[in-house]
Design goal:
The chain has one domain (13-120). It is mostly helical. The chain is built from 4 helices and 2 strands. It has a two-stranded antiparallel ribbon with strand order 1-2. Strand 1 (2-3) and strand 2 form a beta hairpin. It is elongated, with a radius of gyration of 18 Å.
Length: 125
């Protein structure tokens, strides 16, 4: 993917785009339920194959986790402070899932960048 005089674009250029996509699909899941979740999973599969591999995937996960974690945590704290205000299921599993998604995204980005660094070292030799 040559740009800027034949130089390759850094992998970090995929991160902001992925975060925006993750936040957008996070909203779609909230708005459309199962259809939004299906779209999110489709985007995750496609993002896993965009070079550099897994950078965009990690960024999409980070975007979704960043969107959901504050809301789920706030709801969990509110329910813990006043249990009578919680008429639905506990929001704690949703907060845990959001934290896991965010952590998985960060770890995927770190892993992708380390892998990319090793492969570029091999090409330079």
């Amino acid at each position: 993917m040559p740009t800027n005089g034949g130089r390759r674009r850094p992998a970090t250029s995929r991160v902001p785009a992925g975060v925006v996509i993750g936040v957008a699909t996070g909203f779609l899941i909230d708005l459309f339920g199962v259809f939004g979740l299906a779209l999110f999973l489709t985007i995750l599969v496609v993002a896993a194959f965009v070079p550099p591999r897994f950078t965009l995937l990690g960024a999409v996960l980070v975007g979704a986790g960043v969107l959901w974690l504050p809301f789920a945590t706030e709801a969990s704290v509110r329910c813990a402070a006043n249990p009578s205000s919680c008429s639905h299921t506990s929001p704690i599993p949703f907060a845990i899932a959001a934290a896991v998604i965010l952590t998985a995204g960060v770890l995927t980005i770190v892993w992708s960048h380390r892998r990319l660094g090793r492969s570029s070292d091999i090409r330079e030799r």
